[in-house]
Design goal:
heterodimer; A: 243 residues; alpha/beta; Rossmann fold; Histidine-containing Protein, Chain: A; four-stranded parallel β-sheet; four-stranded antiparallel β-sheet; 11 helices; 43% helix; 14% strand; B: mainly alpha; DhaK_L_YcgS (chain B); kinase (chain B)
Amino acid sequence: MGEGSVGVVFVSHSSKIAEGLVELARQMAASVALVAAGGTDDGRIGTSFDRVMSAIDEADSGAGVAVLCDLGSAILTAETALDFLDDELRARVTIVDAPLVEGGVAAAVAAESGEPLDDVVRAAQSAGGAREPERADAAGPEPAATATATEKVGGEASAGPVRTVTLVNDDGLHARPAAELVKLASTFDQRVTVNGTDARSLLAIMSLGLTKGASLEIASEDPAASNAVDAIAELVESGFGES
Amino acid sequence: MGLDINWAVDWVRRSAEVVAEHRVELIRLDRDIGDGDHGENLDRGFEAVVPKLDDLAAGSTPGDVLKLVAMTLISTVGGAAGPLYGTAYLKAAASAGTDASLDGSAVARMLEAARDGIVSRGKAESGDKTMIDAWTPAVDAATEAAAAGADASAVLAAAAEAAASGAEATEPLVARKGRASYLGERSVGHRDPGAQSSALLLQAAADAASESTGA
């Protein structure tokens, strides 16, 4: 991969944060161009226009660059840098509004999987998804349904679909298949879990540490999620295209 | 009488002086509601511009000077002021174009372009407790003065006065942009450092103009 994969730039006020993110993401994306642009030119807290410019240049192999930023002025500096790129390069550089750690790792994994820039950006944006269900539950689109149907005593309603499948991949659920699973789960409106963990959160799925032969319970509390559960179960059973 | 290259160079020198002079005050304002680096960052930026003034080619225009300031601030400031002021000076330079001399309306248009640049970069609106709260009254006053036929020096004087009032008027506001917005209600009672530095820079522009035109 490497050659031709999307690059990721981390812009932070702190060089340690930016370098730490590269280090963290590198574990799951060994061949992707991950470049840190942290701190000012003279090593203070702040952001450097020149560092961002050269980081973008270094990260681009022709497939584009996703730029993740920490606080406000990092975004301003990155946007200013974009203004100064030539049109051809600027067209394939995207500043992503995403949580720096989860989003950065998700972007790096998607890039490692050979995804195009748009998908890398989407992976980063959806990486914060693990925190959203709580909000969705509070103001979800189905208050009428929950009110009229099963009076959800103790929240133990298990009306939704469940399938249990076995992981066949020799290397377990490593970065690439995990990213594929998360990507597939993100295409459905219904919330699906794998062994109780949100299937849309890459870090959560990877931290399950699933190895070959592991049993995966793919489930949803939403009765309308059988398509989603089936699709994810079939993807796991297929071995994610690996032998 | 229009404002030429000598005014532009003098503005930059006066800006560097006034920022150095108010460095501690700006740091203190920024420490109250931000990260405390505004005075130091801006001082470093303008300090870096001054020696470059000597390298300006013969026949340079006010627009060339503004562009030099823009590029230097963008690459040396390191905080939000770098891209914000950098964009402002860049848009001002584009507005001034290659004209050797700027009259009252050209100055008003230049200030408006600078303000629009800050808005497009920072996405702040009036009342957010940012530098826009100094710039927008300044642009309004400048436009009004220019429409009434004021010369460049009088246009800048009107802008500077409005900017100073605008900066003062940020004190009771709740910050809605930038680092200060994390403080919410606690930002009330503090003047916005960016609005304050904007007022200082516009006052420096007016002072340079009144010197150069002998007004």
